[in-house]
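Risk register update: the risk of archive-format incompatibility is retired. Evidence:
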Amino acid sequence: MSEVLIQMEGIEKRFPGVLALDQCHFDLRASEVHALVGENGAGKSTLMKIIGGIYRKDAGHVYIGDQEIEIENPRMAQGLGISIVHQELNLMPHLTVAQNIFIGREPREKIPFMMDDKAANKESIRLFEMLNLQLDPETKIANLTIAKQQMVEIAKALSFNAKILIMDEPTAALTDTEIEDLFTIIKQLRKNGVGIIHISHRLEELKLISDRVSVMRDGRMIDTLLTKDASVDKIISLMVGRTIYESEPELPENPSQEVVLEVRNLNHGKALRDVSFDLKKGEIVGFAGLIGAGRTEVARAIFGADGFTSGEIYIKGQEVQIKTPKDAVAYGIGYLSEDRKRYGLTLGMDITE
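Archived output:
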Protein backbone atom coordinates (compact mmCIF):
# COMPACT_ATOMS: atom_id res chain seq x y z
CA MET A 1 0.00 0.00 0.00
CA SER A 2 1.26 3.49 -0.85
CA GLU A 3 2.48 5.94 1.77
CA VAL A 4 -0.26 7.96 3.46
CA LEU A 5 0.52 11.61 2.72
CA ILE A 6 -2.21 13.19 4.87
CA GLN A 7 -4.77 11.78 7.28
CA MET A 8 -7.65 13.69 8.87
CA GLU A 9 -9.63 12.35 11.82
CA GLY A 10 -12.77 13.75 13.45
CA ILE A 11 -12.52 17.14 11.75
CA GLU A 12 -15.10 19.72 12.81
CA LYS A 13 -15.60 23.28 11.62
CA ARG A 14 -18.23 25.72 12.87
CA PHE A 15 -19.43 29.00 11.46
CA PRO A 16 -22.05 31.18 13.21
CA GLY A 17 -25.15 29.02 13.48
CA VAL A 18 -23.74 26.30 11.20
CA LEU A 19 -21.81 23.08 11.77
CA ALA A 20 -20.04 22.98 8.41
CA LEU A 21 -18.00 19.83 9.10
CA ASP A 22 -19.08 17.12 11.51
CA GLN A 23 -16.56 14.42 12.50
CA CYS A 24 -15.01 14.09 9.02
CA HIS A 25 -12.36 11.51 8.23
CA PHE A 26 -10.22 11.63 5.08
CA ASP A 27 -6.85 10.41 3.85
CA LEU A 28 -4.71 10.65 0.72
CA ARG A 29 -1.95 8.32 -0.43
CA ALA A 30 1.07 8.91 -2.62
CA SER A 31 0.49 8.37 -6.37
CA GLU A 32 -3.27 8.35 -5.81
CA VAL A 33 -6.12 10.36 -7.28
CA HIS A 34 -8.76 10.56 -4.55
CA ALA A 35 -12.02 12.05 -5.82
CA LEU A 36 -14.18 14.10 -3.47
CA VAL A 37 -17.83 14.59 -4.42
CA GLY A 38 -21.01 15.96 -2.92
CA GLU A 39 -23.78 18.42 -3.60
CA ASN A 40 -23.18 22.16 -3.26
CA GLY A 41 -22.82 22.97 0.43
CA ALA A 42 -21.81 19.43 1.39
CA GLY A 43 -18.54 20.67 2.92
CA LYS A 44 -15.98 19.76 0.25
CA SER A 45 -14.44 23.21 -0.08
CA THR A 46 -14.40 23.75 3.68
CA LEU A 47 -12.50 20.50 4.22
CA MET A 48 -10.00 21.38 1.50
CA LYS A 49 -9.50 24.88 2.90
CA ILE A 50 -8.52 23.31 6.21
CA ILE A 51 -5.91 21.20 4.40
CA GLY A 52 -4.72 24.33 2.58
CA GLY A 53 -4.45 26.42 5.75
CA ILE A 54 -7.17 28.87 4.69
CA TYR A 55 -9.44 27.78 7.57
CA ARG A 56 -8.45 26.47 11.00
CA LYS A 57 -10.27 23.38 12.24
CA ASP A 58 -12.26 23.59 15.49
CA ALA A 59 -11.73 19.94 16.43
CA GLY A 60 -10.01 16.82 15.16
CA HIS A 61 -6.52 15.79 14.11
CA VAL A 62 -4.43 16.22 10.95
CA TYR A 63 -1.37 14.06 10.29
CA ILE A 64 1.28 14.63 7.62
CA GLY A 65 3.07 11.30 7.41
CA ASP A 66 3.10 10.11 11.02
CA GLN A 67 3.33 13.58 12.58
CA GLU A 68 0.32 15.50 13.88
CA ILE A 69 0.26 19.00 12.39
CA GLU A 70 -1.76 22.18 12.97
CA ILE A 71 -1.88 23.87 9.56
CA GLU A 72 -2.02 27.53 10.57
CA ASN A 73 -1.97 29.35 7.23
CA PRO A 74 -1.52 28.86 3.46
CA ARG A 75 2.23 29.56 3.60
CA MET A 76 2.66 26.80 6.16
CA ALA A 77 0.61 24.47 3.95
CA GLN A 78 2.87 25.24 0.99
CA GLY A 79 5.89 24.50 3.16
CA LEU A 80 4.35 21.10 3.93
CA GLY A 81 4.03 20.36 0.21
CA ILE A 82 0.32 21.19 -0.12
CA SER A 83 -0.96 23.23 -3.08
CA ILE A 84 -4.47 24.08 -4.30
CA VAL A 85 -5.57 24.77 -7.87
CA HIS A 86 -8.76 26.72 -7.22
CA GLN A 87 -11.75 26.74 -9.56
CA GLU A 88 -11.30 30.53 -9.70
CA LEU A 89 -7.71 30.68 -10.95
CA ASN A 90 -5.38 32.95 -8.96
CA LEU A 91 -3.26 34.41 -11.72
CA MET A 92 -2.34 37.96 -12.69
CA PRO A 93 -3.36 38.44 -16.33
CA HIS A 94 -0.87 41.16 -17.25
CA LEU A 95 2.19 39.32 -15.94
CA THR A 96 4.01 36.59 -17.84
CA VAL A 97 3.68 32.88 -17.18
CA ALA A 98 7.05 32.76 -15.39
CA GLN A 99 6.28 35.86 -13.31
CA ASN A 100 3.03 34.27 -12.13
CA ILE A 101 4.73 31.02 -11.19
CA PHE A 102 7.37 32.72 -9.03
CA ILE A 103 5.55 35.80 -7.78
CA GLY A 104 6.56 36.59 -4.20
CA ARG A 105 9.68 34.39 -4.42
CA GLU A 106 11.27 35.67 -7.60
CA PRO A 107 14.84 34.69 -8.51
CA ARG A 108 16.89 37.85 -7.93
CA GLU A 109 19.67 39.45 -9.93
CA LYS A 110 22.70 40.96 -8.21
CA ILE A 111 20.92 44.33 -8.36
CA PRO A 112 18.47 44.49 -5.41
CA PHE A 113 14.74 44.29 -6.17
CA MET A 114 15.33 43.15 -9.78
CA MET A 115 13.79 39.85 -10.88
CA ASP A 116 16.10 37.50 -12.74
CA ASP A 117 13.79 36.80 -15.68
CA LYS A 118 16.22 34.42 -17.36
CA ALA A 119 16.41 32.22 -14.26
CA ALA A 120 12.62 32.29 -13.84
CA ASN A 121 12.07 31.38 -17.50
CA LYS A 122 14.61 28.55 -17.31
CA GLU A 123 13.01 27.07 -14.19
CA SER A 124 9.53 27.43 -15.74
CA ILE A 125 10.65 25.47 -18.80
CA ARG A 126 11.98 22.73 -16.49
CA LEU A 127 8.58 22.50 -14.81
CA PHE A 128 6.82 22.37 -18.19
CA GLU A 129 9.10 19.55 -19.32
CA MET A 130 8.08 17.56 -16.23
CA LEU A 131 4.46 17.93 -17.37
CA ASN A 132 5.18 17.47 -21.10
CA LEU A 133 3.80 20.97 -21.70
CA GLN A 134 4.58 23.31 -24.58
CA LEU A 135 4.30 26.79 -23.06
CA ASP A 136 6.28 29.99 -23.58
CA PRO A 137 7.22 31.34 -20.12
CA GLU A 138 7.26 34.90 -21.51
CA THR A 139 3.62 34.79 -22.69
CA LYS A 140 1.19 37.03 -20.82
CA ILE A 141 -1.46 35.09 -18.90
CA ALA A 142 -4.18 37.20 -20.54
CA ASN A 143 -3.27 35.63 -23.89
CA LEU A 144 -3.79 32.03 -22.70
CA THR A 145 -6.94 29.91 -22.77
CA ILE A 146 -8.52 28.81 -19.49
CA ALA A 147 -7.03 25.34 -20.04
CA LYS A 148 -3.51 26.73 -20.47
CA GLN A 149 -3.94 28.96 -17.43
CA GLN A 150 -4.86 25.89 -15.43
CA MET A 151 -1.65 24.20 -16.57
CA VAL A 152 0.26 27.25 -15.32
CA GLU A 153 -1.43 26.83 -11.92
CA ILE A 154 -0.34 23.19 -11.83
CA ALA A 155 3.24 24.15 -12.75
CA LYS A 156 3.13 26.80 -10.02
CA ALA A 157 2.02 24.14 -7.51
CA LEU A 158 4.92 21.90 -8.54
CA SER A 159 7.34 24.79 -8.09
CA PHE A 160 6.57 24.50 -4.36
CA ASN A 161 7.59 20.81 -4.55
CA ALA A 162 3.97 19.87 -3.91
CA LYS A 163 3.29 16.31 -2.84
CA ILE A 164 -0.40 16.96 -2.17
CA LEU A 165 -2.30 18.70 -4.98
CA ILE A 166 -5.94 19.74 -4.52
CA MET A 167 -7.81 20.39 -7.78
CA ASP A 168 -11.20 22.08 -7.35
CA GLU A 169 -13.49 21.47 -10.36
CA PRO A 170 -10.52 21.46 -12.78
CA THR A 171 -12.59 20.38 -15.80
CA ALA A 172 -15.57 22.72 -15.32
CA ALA A 173 -14.62 25.12 -18.13
CA LEU A 174 -12.63 22.76 -20.37
CA THR A 175 -13.46 21.13 -23.69
CA ASP A 176 -13.24 17.35 -24.09
CA THR A 177 -9.84 17.66 -25.77
CA GLU A 178 -8.54 19.92 -22.99
CA ILE A 179 -9.84 17.45 -20.38
CA GLU A 180 -7.87 14.66 -22.06
CA ASP A 181 -4.74 16.83 -21.91
CA LEU A 182 -5.36 17.55 -18.22
CA PHE A 183 -5.82 13.86 -17.44
CA THR A 184 -2.53 13.09 -19.18
CA ILE A 185 -0.81 15.56 -16.85
CA ILE A 186 -2.57 14.09 -13.80
CA LYS A 187 -1.30 10.63 -14.76
CA GLN A 188 2.22 12.05 -15.08
CA LEU A 189 1.95 13.59 -11.61
CA ARG A 190 0.87 10.23 -10.20
CA LYS A 191 3.98 8.62 -11.66
CA ASN A 192 6.02 11.24 -9.81
CA GLY A 193 4.43 10.26 -6.48
CA VAL A 194 2.08 13.23 -6.13
CA GLY A 195 -1.23 12.57 -4.37
CA ILE A 196 -4.16 14.41 -5.96
CA ILE A 197 -7.53 15.34 -4.46
CA HIS A 198 -9.92 15.79 -7.39
CA ILE A 199 -13.18 17.65 -6.67
CA SER A 200 -15.74 17.30 -9.44
CA HIS A 201 -19.45 17.21 -10.24
CA ARG A 202 -18.76 15.26 -13.45
CA LEU A 203 -19.16 11.80 -12.01
CA GLU A 204 -18.40 10.02 -15.29
CA GLU A 205 -14.86 11.42 -15.07
CA LEU A 206 -14.17 9.62 -11.82
CA LYS A 207 -14.01 6.23 -13.52
CA LEU A 208 -11.37 7.57 -15.90
CA ILE A 209 -9.00 9.21 -13.47
CA SER A 210 -9.54 8.36 -9.77
CA ASP A 211 -8.59 5.42 -7.54
CA ARG A 212 -10.97 6.14 -4.67
CA VAL A 213 -14.00 8.36 -4.25
CA SER A 214 -15.24 9.92 -1.00
CA VAL A 215 -18.80 11.21 -0.76
CA MET A 216 -19.86 14.10 1.50
CA ARG A 217 -23.35 15.16 2.51
CA ASP A 218 -24.44 17.87 4.97
CA GLY A 219 -20.94 18.30 6.39
CA ARG A 220 -20.39 14.58 6.99
CA MET A 221 -18.17 12.08 5.23
CA ILE A 222 -20.72 9.46 4.16
CA ASP A 223 -18.49 6.81 2.59
CA THR A 224 -15.20 6.14 0.79
CA LEU A 225 -15.22 3.58 -2.03
CA LEU A 226 -12.83 2.13 -4.54
CA THR A 227 -13.79 3.83 -7.79
CA LYS A 228 -13.81 0.55 -9.69
CA ASP A 229 -16.52 -0.72 -7.33
CA ALA A 230 -18.63 2.46 -7.35
CA SER A 231 -21.27 3.00 -10.01
CA VAL A 232 -22.45 6.51 -10.84
CA ASP A 233 -25.93 5.60 -9.50
CA LYS A 234 -24.38 4.46 -6.21
CA ILE A 235 -22.41 7.70 -5.86
CA ILE A 236 -25.50 9.81 -6.59
CA SER A 237 -27.54 7.88 -4.01
CA LEU A 238 -24.86 8.52 -1.37
CA MET A 239 -24.72 12.21 -2.30
CA VAL A 240 -28.46 12.86 -1.98
CA GLY A 241 -29.37 10.24 0.62
CA ARG A 242 -31.92 8.41 -1.49
CA THR A 243 -32.22 6.37 -4.66
CA ILE A 244 -32.54 8.45 -7.83
CA TYR A 245 -34.30 6.89 -10.79
CA GLU A 246 -33.26 7.97 -14.26
CA SER A 247 -36.01 9.44 -16.38
CA GLU A 248 -36.18 10.79 -19.90
CA PRO A 249 -37.91 14.13 -20.54
CA GLU A 250 -40.97 13.84 -22.72
CA LEU A 251 -40.47 15.27 -26.18
CA PRO A 252 -43.40 17.04 -27.82
CA GLU A 253 -45.21 14.93 -30.41
CA ASN A 254 -45.45 17.88 -32.79
CA PRO A 255 -42.38 20.09 -32.27
CA SER A 256 -42.78 23.72 -33.25
CA GLN A 257 -41.75 24.69 -36.77
CA GLU A 258 -41.60 28.38 -35.88
CA VAL A 259 -38.15 29.75 -36.71
CA VAL A 260 -37.07 32.27 -34.07
CA LEU A 261 -33.53 32.92 -35.32
CA GLU A 262 -32.08 32.81 -38.82
CA VAL A 263 -28.46 33.47 -39.65
CA ARG A 264 -27.58 33.83 -43.32
CA ASN A 265 -24.11 33.93 -44.91
CA LEU A 266 -22.29 35.40 -41.94
CA ASN A 267 -18.70 36.42 -42.76
CA HIS A 268 -15.90 37.95 -40.74
CA GLY A 269 -12.36 37.68 -42.08
CA LYS A 270 -10.89 34.19 -41.71
CA ALA A 271 -12.93 33.46 -38.58
CA LEU A 272 -16.37 33.15 -40.24
CA ARG A 273 -17.15 32.18 -43.82
CA ASP A 274 -20.73 31.86 -45.08
CA VAL A 275 -22.18 30.62 -41.79
CA SER A 276 -25.92 29.90 -42.06
CA PHE A 277 -28.33 28.12 -39.70
CA ASP A 278 -31.86 28.26 -38.27
CA LEU A 279 -33.09 27.92 -34.70
CA LYS A 280 -36.69 26.85 -34.05
CA LYS A 281 -38.80 27.56 -31.00
CA GLY A 282 -38.08 25.02 -28.24
CA GLU A 283 -35.08 23.64 -30.11
CA ILE A 284 -31.46 23.18 -29.00
CA VAL A 285 -28.86 23.54 -31.74
CA GLY A 286 -25.33 22.37 -30.94
CA PHE A 287 -22.12 23.59 -32.55
CA ALA A 288 -19.24 21.11 -32.74
CA GLY A 289 -15.70 21.65 -33.95
CA LEU A 290 -12.06 21.85 -32.99
CA ILE A 291 -10.50 24.81 -31.19
CA GLY A 292 -10.35 27.70 -33.67
CA ALA A 293 -13.15 26.33 -35.85
CA GLY A 294 -15.27 29.42 -35.23
CA ARG A 295 -17.92 28.29 -32.74
CA THR A 296 -17.27 31.07 -30.24
CA GLU A 297 -16.90 33.62 -33.04
CA VAL A 298 -20.40 32.78 -34.34
CA ALA A 299 -21.92 33.30 -30.90
CA ARG A 300 -20.07 36.57 -30.31
CA ALA A 301 -21.08 37.90 -33.74
CA ILE A 302 -24.77 37.13 -33.16
CA PHE A 303 -24.59 38.78 -29.74
CA GLY A 304 -22.94 41.92 -31.10
CA ALA A 305 -19.75 41.44 -29.11
CA ASP A 306 -17.76 41.21 -32.36
CA GLY A 307 -18.69 42.64 -35.71
CA PHE A 308 -19.16 40.80 -39.00
CA THR A 309 -18.39 42.05 -42.50
CA SER A 310 -21.42 40.61 -44.29
CA GLY A 311 -24.50 38.49 -43.70
CA GLU A 312 -27.98 38.82 -42.23
CA ILE A 313 -29.62 37.99 -38.92
CA TYR A 314 -33.40 37.54 -38.67
CA ILE A 315 -35.47 37.40 -35.47
CA LYS A 316 -38.89 35.79 -36.10
CA GLY A 317 -38.60 36.53 -39.80
CA GLN A 318 -37.60 40.17 -39.45
CA GLU A 319 -34.08 41.27 -40.37
CA VAL A 320 -32.38 43.03 -37.46
CA GLN A 321 -29.22 45.08 -37.07
CA ILE A 322 -27.20 43.92 -34.06
CA LYS A 323 -24.20 46.17 -33.57
CA THR A 324 -23.72 45.84 -29.81
CA PRO A 325 -24.66 43.45 -26.98
CA LYS A 326 -27.25 46.03 -25.92
CA ASP A 327 -28.98 45.54 -29.29
CA ALA A 328 -28.91 41.75 -28.84
CA VAL A 329 -30.43 41.95 -25.35
CA ALA A 330 -33.19 44.20 -26.69
CA TYR A 331 -34.07 41.43 -29.18
CA GLY A 332 -34.17 38.82 -26.40
CA ILE A 333 -30.76 37.24 -27.01
CA GLY A 334 -28.61 36.18 -24.03
CA TYR A 335 -24.98 35.05 -24.04
CA LEU A 336 -23.10 32.91 -21.51
CA SER A 337 -19.39 33.30 -22.23
CA GLU A 338 -16.83 30.51 -21.87
CA ASP A 339 -14.92 32.57 -19.30
CA ARG A 340 -17.74 33.83 -17.06
CA LYS A 341 -15.47 35.83 -14.77
CA ARG A 342 -13.51 37.62 -17.47
CA TYR A 343 -16.24 38.31 -20.03
CA GLY A 344 -19.59 37.64 -18.35
CA LEU A 345 -19.49 39.57 -15.08
CA THR A 346 -18.78 43.09 -13.85
CA LEU A 347 -17.11 42.17 -10.58
CA GLY A 348 -17.35 45.64 -9.04
CA MET A 349 -21.17 45.52 -9.11
CA ASP A 350 -23.50 43.61 -6.82
CA ILE A 351 -25.68 40.73 -8.07
CA THR A 352 -28.76 42.90 -8.72
CA GLU A 353 -26.77 45.41 -10.78
